[in-house]
Amino acid sequence: MLADPEPVIVRIYGGLGNQLFMYACGLALACRHQRPLRIDVGGLAWEQHRPFALGNFDLRAPPASAAEVRRIRGFSDSKLSREWFNFRRSLGLTGNTGFIRENGWRFDPKILDISGPCYLKGHWLSERYFADQAAAVRTDLRYRSPPAGRNAECATQIADCQESVSIHVRRGDYLAGGNESIYAGLDRDYYKAALAQLCQHLKQPRFFCFSDDPQAARRELDLPRETVFVDHNGSAGHEDLRLMSLCRHHVIANSTFSWWGAWLAEHPSQVVIAPKTWWIHPDYDDRDIIPARWLRVANTG
Known about the structure:
Radius of gyration: 20 Å
Order of helices and strands: EHEHHEEHHEHEHEHEHEE
Structural class: alpha/beta
Strand order of the largest sheet: 7-6-5-8-9-10
CATH class of the largest domain: Alpha Beta
Shape: globular
Number of strands: 10
Mean pLDDT: 89
Number of helices: 9
């Protein structure tokens, strides 16, 4: 009896949007080369404010065992094991382990051709890592249960609109902890220009605004009077993401969260508006984040 092939393991960390990119990259690689997928959530132990956010999706991938991680990556999660591995690697003594670390922010086509068992660590912020396996990604990212309560009501409201538009306004952590020197600004002018461009394609749009600071969005952005502010989900970000993905068209922020809201909603007539500049930090390259079919609008940069 043949043994099961060794898996692709993908490390999961960060917020919901980043976790989705990591999972999608790992799943696509596993499907492409007929290997099982495992997820490693050990990185979340270092981010106490970032829980595992994919539990509401119908994922096929179980957690990786400690033995699988150690065997394929070449070291365990202990500090001693990691330091010993790094020391041996500095001397060229680690051999051909399956540990694959992302090298920069640009799309790396070599990742697509990795056929052996491997351990992926990185953000993988490009659709090009999984575009050929989009159907498998969408299958795994189905929700385990239907919306309930106010989310069911909002889902019906969105479904009743022929031209529903999701608008995402992200503030929160983008304005703290030094992130202002990393992320490009999105001000009133960006949203005004984005909506103006979007309305060139639509006749009767209905806007649904999602934000981690809905009061600021109401106060500072010149949104149409009939805009629905979806402000009841609090920390249940997966519910906001689901409602975003039910909208037909999207104005996204420079946020992987609303990126996925738009991507999961894709249909032939979809219009997505994204900021032209994602990051302003000189070491960050954003050229591969936005799919070519989406439209770009200038922001403050």
